[in-house]
Specification:
The protein is an alpha/beta fold and 363 residues long. It is built from 11 helices and 21 strands.
Length: 363
């Protein structure tokens, strides 16, 4: 009987709650909301990174989050029958590289010698089984020391994502020729024609000790600060509060810039699993079930008559939409957003204006 490879999900649940305002806010960002199903995005993430697939078994997750979300996250995990291996509290946000370093240090401390699956809490994946199968396919390369990133097969010339250019194939994965920044449309169209590029989904698989070794060479100050903050952390009942002073001094950087773009061991596994980072309300409209007029209307608090190609949602007052077209209408709590579908990227400007006005109650 083949021994199972243990994969520990490390779920990064940060975020400031701006792109899906007013439903997503600092106190309850989008990963803590049920946007695509009866489960929140965090619950969906934890559930799809669980169980067994092929030669891989998923262990209890490590969840790294804002200290203010601790109780909500614990309650949401309990509601779906998942007991985290640890809930690690960040006193301040420091991007994804310190998250990964702290998780690697924690796995080393507990003697866990399996693989670390680093993934955001706020993405949607339609094909959960396909995702687990992709992790299982990449496990061999990760065990052998590769730092694997998962690429999404592009279905259009998207300019909002970074891209990964793949090189030679080795087993189930490809070498990474290049990470490229968000392109303009003409460049994105060329990437699509060439057929060698994937969207960068920000999901990674590697051995914890291999990641630590790479960080020792590429960004030792991040590794040292994260490990020191973990060593000095306050611990109680599975909750680990990283030392505030030490972690605040940790450089802020992404795992992409700090490690993946510098290492010679980067590999990519392309996958087609119905992935979205749900980066805007228009993305939710695209993913949602719609009627023949292109209307996505959610909840019994919405009445939509003659509406076309629109997304209407409320968890507060009744919203009646009559004859509207190409609109996003979202009512939540004490705020209502009305925007053209092609203007929703400017929601962050509304949040900035509210901050300038001192309206913390709405942010």
């Amino acid at each position: 009987m083949t021994d199972k490879t243990v994969v520990t999900p490390v779920i990064m649940s940060g975020g400031s709650g701006t792109r899906l305002w007013p439903m997503s806010r600092q106190a309850r960002p989008k990963q803590l909301r049920a946007l695509m199903s009866d489960h929140t995005l965090l619950q969906e993430t934890a559930l799809r990174a669980s169980g067994e697939t092929g030669d891989v078994t998923f262990g209890d997750p490590i969840i790294i989050c804002n200290a203010a979300h601790r109780e909500e996250i614990a309650a949401q995990m309990d509601a779906v029958g998942i007991t985290p291996a640890a809930i690690v509290l960040e006193p301040v946000g420091r991007n994804t590289a310190p998250c990964a370093a702290a998780a690697a240090a924690l796995m080393a401390e507990t003697g866990e010698d399996g693989l670390m699956l680093l993934l955001p809490a706020d993405h949607h994946i339609r094909d959960a089984e396909g995702f687990r199968a992709a992790v299982a396919r990449a496990a061999g390369a990760a065990r052998d020391g590769a730092l694997v990133t998962f690429g999404i097969r592009p279905d259009g010339p998207e300019t909002g994502y970074g891209y990964i250019r793949r090189g030679e194939k080795s087993g189930a994965v490809y070498s990474v020729d290049q990470f490229v920044e968000k392109p303009d449309r003409k460049t994105a169209e060329r990437y699509l024609e060439e057929g060698l590029y994937s969207w960068n989904a920000g999901i990674f698989l590697f051995r914890a000790d291999r990641l630590a070794e790479e960080m020792r060479g590429q960004c030792p100050e991040i590794l040292d600060a994260a490990a020191a903050a973990l060593k000095a952390a306050l611990r109680s009942d599975g909750v680990i509060a990283l030392d505030p002073a030490i972690f605040a001094d940790c450089p802020s950087d992404s795992i992409d810039y700090a490690v993946m773009e510098k290492t010679s061991r980067a590999a990519v596994l392309p996958m087609d699993i119905g992935w979205s980072d749900i980066g805007s309300w228009s993305a939710l409209w695209e993913l949602a079930d719609k009627d023949e007029a292109g209307l996505a209307a959610h909840s019994d608090r919405v009445i939509a008559i003659g509406a076309r190609n629109s997304y209407v949602r409320s968890d507060g007052p009744l919203v009646a939409a009559l004859g509207v077209e190409d609109l996003i209408v979202v009512a939540s709590g004490d705020a209502v957003l009305i925007a053209r579908r092609d203007a929703v990227q400017d929601v962050k400007k509304v949040v900035e204006e509210l901050k300038d006005r001192g309206r913390k109650d709405l942010v």
